[in-house]
Amino acid sequence: MAGWCSRRFGVPQGWIDPARNVLPVNGTREALFAFTQTVVNRSDDGLVISPNPFYQIYEGAAFLAGAQPHYLPCLSENGFNPDFDAVSPDIWKRCQILFLCSPGNPTGALIPVETLKKLIALADEHDFVIAADECYSELYFDEQTPPPGLLSACVELGRKDFKRCVVFHSLSKRSNLPGLRSGFVAGDAEILKAFLLYRTYHGCAMPVQTQLASIAAWNDEEHVRANRDLYREKFAAVLDILSPVLDVQRPDGGFYLWPNVGTDDAAFCRDLFVDQHVTAVPGSYLSREVDGVNPGAGRVRLALVAPLAECIEAAERIRAFLSK
Length: 324
Hints:
- This protein is α/β, with parallel strands linked by helices.
- It has helices spanning 2-9, 28-39, 57-65, 89-94, 113-126, 150-157, 171-174, 189-202, 208-218, 222-242, 265-276, 308-322, and strands at 22-25, 47-52, 68-73, 95-101, 129-133, 165-170, 183-187, 256-257, 281-282, 300-303.
- The protein folds into 2 domains: 1-219, Type I PLP-dependent aspartate aminotransferase-like (Major domain) (Aspartate Aminotransferase, domain 2); 222-323, Aspartate Aminotransferase, domain 1, CATH 3.90.1150.10.
């Protein structure tokens, strides 16, 4: 895992100590939740900031840790990334964890490395931890330009100690192994030391057979490239069918489409299932309303995880539904 981080994000040799800067976890879902319990100080009026829409674990982890979630809308006019410049200093001062997700779930938006560097400066100024959920980082379109990660920003800044920076990676999306429950956390050694202590009470060791399978998966890139090829084929085929009838664009990464359906998203998903037996997730279910606006309203999440033929059939059914 340490070697993979170095290869993937250009981390110089010697920066990542496997014993101090990396912690294996049984999938990043439990890791994201447990990490929040480790970092949040319940005695403060703390905030856990996340994109909106978001992976629901961020919210539940914040509540259970005694913090309040604070949502940053991801809108089309901002490339589906949060407008970090719009966050007031008072909010940053209360922030204890900033969750990032790049490529985003469900938007597929990438956070530029320059933005990551600015966020690191804010973390230093206001003393919060950046928790970068990078589980979709290996699903992208341009083989010559992999998405940057938080470790990439640390390298550009010469931040050898990864202070206040922690990344979460998993084999679930990269290697199509969600059932294996295998991932890792890497970054700030002092934070991971506290996280390991918490996990001695809360977590459990990864089974040996899972460790061995994980080593093989992290050390092989051929199957990951083949996986990306399959997703490129699926995106191309599905977009060719849906683009004429739906407001939808190819994302920067990940395996979701995030189309604007121009109507009530929950009703759209319900009627689509009844009429065509195709399952989609209402965008408003993945977001929270803030100041009267739900950034997921009117959108749906389509996951292109089925085999190519099934994705094509689903797209044709959606087109038929929209043509009625």
